[in-house]
Amino acid sequence: MDLRGLFLNDRVAAALVTALVGGGVVAAGWFWTHALSRRRDRQLREERVGDIQRALLAEIRAHVAALEGQTLEEPDAREAMVARLVQGRHVPILPHDANDRIFRAIVEDVHILPEWAIDPVVRYYRLLAVRSALAQDIRANAKDQPERATEMFRDYLILNDETLATGRRAMIVLSAGLHGGEGAVQALLAAAERRETERIAATLPGELAQLREKLSKRPSDPKGP
Q1: What pLDDT does 122 receive?
Q2: I need a labelling partner for 63 at 20 to 30 A (CA). Which of 5, 6, 131, 152 fits?
Q3: 99: helix, coil or strand?
Q4: How many helices (H) and strands (E) does the chain have?
Q5: For position 9, what pLDDT does the model report?
């Protein structure tokens, strides 16, 4: 039987069709299974990202609330505390840890967070670590080197303000991401950038005027040519 006759044979043709249909079904099943697997993995990843964001938000919110209660807003109150430290009469209560237990527990998974969430979160916890290390140095120097401890404490107060502001920003970004997704976060960041641009435009002329006034009041060089 030649090749043409082989293909015209009913049994051979039926077997060929069966094989083609079976192969197509297997291929379609494989693609479908793969698509379902990828969809399931994507859903699990999204759930994991949401869980991490909620956990970090809870930890940051709790610590920011504590910072708000500890922060001295009035300059006079700050200077009074600094004065007591200089005189050796009082060493302020400073944190012994960085309040980052949840962050340390999930640090290996931080990379799966959206890019817009990683930066404020990592920056906040980095400031916490620096703040904790500075607090240890202040306690170590408070007794024997009060002047050095005082200078570090001034830096600590500034760092405390920066940590509080960064924590609030991280909270806003995480909350917006959980409730509105990337679109809400981008809109939020764009609005913040516009406000900052408007603030600079409003305050820059006055700041430049003050700078020119200070420069004009500088005494001229008494030395002649």
Answers
A1: 93
A2: 152
A3: coil
A4: 6, 0
A5: 58
Scan for tokens 């990592």, then name that residue.
122
> How many CB atoms are closer than 10 A to CB 92?
17
Q: What rounded mean pLDDT belongs to the chain? A: 78
Please give the structure tokens belonging to residue 69.
């209660």
Q: At residue 171, what is the residue type? A: M
Q: What 3-state DSSP class applies to 145?
A: coil
What residues contact 203, with CB distance under 8 A and at least 6 apart? none
Q: Which two tokens stand for residue 35?
A: 């698509």
Q: State the CB neighbour count (10 A cutoff) for residue 51.
A: 12
CA–CA distance, 95 with 166 (Å, rounded to integer): 18
The CB density around residue 126, as the number of other CB atoms within 10 Å, is 14
Is residue 143 within 8 A of residue 94, CB to CB? The reply is no
Q: For residue range 62-74, list pLDDT tens digits in order.
A: 999 888 877 766 6
Contact present, 182 and 116 (Cβ < 8 Å): yes
Residue 91 in this model has a pLDDT that exceeds 70: no
At CB < 8 A and 24+ separation, what contacts does 171-176 make? 171/57, 171/60, 171/61, 171/64, 173/116, 173/117, 173/120, 174/53, 174/56, 174/57, 174/60, 174/117, 174/121, 175/57
**At residue 176, what is the residue type?**
A
**Token output for 182:** 């990337």
